[in-house]
Amino acid sequence: MLTKTTLHRRETLHGVFALATMAVAPWQAIAKTPAAGSEAHPFVFTDRDSLSHFIGCDSPSTKAALRMLEQRCVSYLREVAKYSQPFTGCNLSTYYQDFTNEHRGATEVLSTFATYAYLSEIGRSGFGQEKLASQALQGAREILLSWARSGIRDGARFRGALSQYCDEKGTSSLDTRFAIGLTFGRGTPALVNAVDLLLALSVFTSEEADNVDRFLSEIASLITHSSNFRAQRSNLDCNRFSNHVSIHLAALASIARLRHDRQGLAEIALGQGGAIAISWSQQVAKAIYGPGQTILNCYKPGESWEFTQTVTPQAGEIVDRYRARQEQTFGYPMFSLTYLLLTLKVLSRSNLRNVAAIAEAQARITSALDYYGAYFARYLSAEEVRMPANFQYPGANQYAGKLLSRTAAATITGSDGHLLPFLIAAPLMPGNVTVKAVIARAKQYPPHRPFSAVTSLYLTDVCTAVL
């Protein structure tokens, strides 16, 4: 008999960063503040009212998204046995493929199952198939508890040291250590979303909840350790403040929010206390160029065909612009912006949004949405995939003639994630004209493909965006 519970606080852990700070002095552990009130799950990225509204949202786009959610659920259920076999080796690439891949990794499968089961529960006869929802719930439990008990292990212990990870050759290289936070951070928001929804459905025993809590704490400590190591060792500022850090921070913020760690969340946002080398507010200020700024210390123009950029950045451009392969036009900047906005969403839902430094960071994020939105509101579809050489727009010489997305087959109307920053921003900045223009442009493409391609973490933003 499963009993209702919440994630229990572990007396031996004094905060999200406890394990990392033991290994990486001189950062101090952040004391946990006892959970206040009785905030009901789910609450990290969404809540019951928002999800209920999404089910009833009278829009072809949301209906398309719900149909796709159910199709993914059916597809993933065929492979529960595969996802329930956690990897324990050192190969970092395998952890991405098996666990944190945003489209078919175990964390996205967990979020899809939990979302479908929860929507079916609160929607009753209005949404979902009872048998499918029950199978999804059992699948989510099986996958999550398998990973929490025995995934990411070296023997019986969690792989908490950077030296315990390797590349395809079995080498623990500097590049591998730099990528650990990115690899695990990419799937963490979806993992947290799944746990949040499963807690709302009361599916864990006390012991199971402790295992999940420990697992999340270990992941947070590993990401913190990797993020700090990368910040200290990066020789170029364009690397130091790249999309990696945006992803680290979104992962850490989501875990801190789930664990009611308000002090830890403030540390992630503002950097007070020194447990995290680069705070979210600092990352926004460095990763998004302001008016009149010069490019951060980076590869010199022409030094590498992979990494090059025009000398003068435009206000709102993101530092990852230096990724200069033909197909990388906007991919990395949008990747970074998505995770910066995910953190802003968590902070907003934690009533930290009005802090001066956070409000200032939001203004910088708005400038990035305005800059890139001017492109996406005009060039969006597969037929317009290559940026015209004669496009008169600030900074056009950085992008002229390049592909809008990674391949001609995947644009903002597909699954490359370029639409995600604008979806997340829609409820956070409801009056933003550029965001509205991009969403309006995306709605022009039947059968509402841009929105059906959205993964479970972003579903509730679809209804707000399209209405």
How many helices in DSSP terms?
19
* Spatial separation of the terminal alpha carbons: 42 Å
**Tell me, what is the CATH class?**
Mainly Alpha
The overall strand count is 2
**Uncertain spans, ≥5 residues at pLDDT below 50?**
1-36
Strand ordering within the main sheet: 1-2
Give the oligomeric state of the chains in this entry, treating copies of one chain as homo and distinct chains as hetero.
single chain
CATH level 3 topology: Glycosyltransferase
Q: How would a textbook summarize the main sheet?
A: 2 strands, antiparallel
Rg over CA atoms, rounded to whole Å, is 21 Å
Proportion of residues in extended strands: under 5%
Number of domains: 1
Query: If classified by CATH, what would the architecture be?
Result: Alpha/alpha barrel
Order of helices and strands: HHHHHHHEEHHHHHHHHHHHH
Overall 3D form: globular
What's the CATH H-level superfamily name? Chondroitin AC/alginate lyase
User: Kindly state the mean pLDDT as a whole number?
Assistant: 85
Helix content: 40-55%
Structural class: mainly alpha
Keywords, separated by commas or semicolons:
467 residues; mainly alpha; Glycosyltransferase; two-stranded antiparallel ribbon; 19 helices; globular; disordered N terminus
Question: Could you explain how this protein is built, in words?
Answer:
The protein is mostly helical and 467 residues long. It has one domain: Glycosyltransferase (Alpha/alpha barrel). Helices cover 53% and strands 1% of the residues. It is built from 19 helices and two strands. It has a two-stranded antiparallel ribbon with strand order 1-2. Strand 1 and strand 2 form a beta hairpin. Helix 7 packs across helix 9, helix 11 packs parallel to helix 14 and helix 15 packs across helix 17.
